[in-house]
Amino acid sequence: MTNIENLTNIIESILFGAGRPIRLSEIKTLLGSQNLDIDLPSIKIALNSLEARYEESSIEIKEVASGFRMQIKEEYGDCLYPLWNDTTNRISKAFMETVSIIAYKQPVTRGDIEDIRGVSVSTQIIRSLLDREWIKVSGYRDAPGRPALYETTKTFLNDLNLKSINDLPPLPEALSAEEALDQLEVG
After folding, report:
1. CATH numbers and ranges of domains, the chain
2. Residue 30 needs a FRET pair 20 to 30 A away by CA distance; which of 53, 82, 92, 141 works?
3. 170, burial (CB in 10 Å: exposed 0-12, middle 13-18, buried 19+)
4. Per-residue pLDDT tens over the stretch 30-86
5. How far apart are CA 163 and CA 161, in angstroms?
6. Three-state SS at 20
7. What is the pLDDT of residues 3-27, one digit of tens each?
């Protein structure tokens, strides 16, 4: 058996080298391939130790939908922005509105999205969301034409740093007609 400090370092190297989120069971399997029979609670203790180690640094251990990963803390992201500033992949307002509707109202059809947005949904936006693996077809509505039902994926959650769809910020409450008029009079 290996001591907890060495186990922590081994798990740190796995997270650093993986380049993607790793599930606890995957860590256990990787350790097993090195003849280290470590139980899941010990792996979780080592992860907690890593979290404590990085508490005062720019790095953190983050649990997202697909597992655990090592990443730069959000407050240090601006320092890296010039390295990754790719202006060729700007995200449009229509793209963000579409993925937001899918995330909050899933599963939804293209028609549902168009009803909410009040405009037609570009085929390119849907294709782009599918290519990024942010959405997937989860089934088909039992309606004329059998429209596809879209929902978000674990990749979407990972890319937005979320563990589950329940971690999305709450939607603002809709204003009553009276409240909207009050705001117009004040403004």
Report:
1. 4-78 (1.10.10.10), 87-167 (1.10.10.10)
2. 53
3. exposed
4. 999 988 899 999 999 999 999 999 999 999 999 999 999 999 998 888 777 777 665
5. 7
6. coil
7. 767 999 999 999 999 989 999 999 9
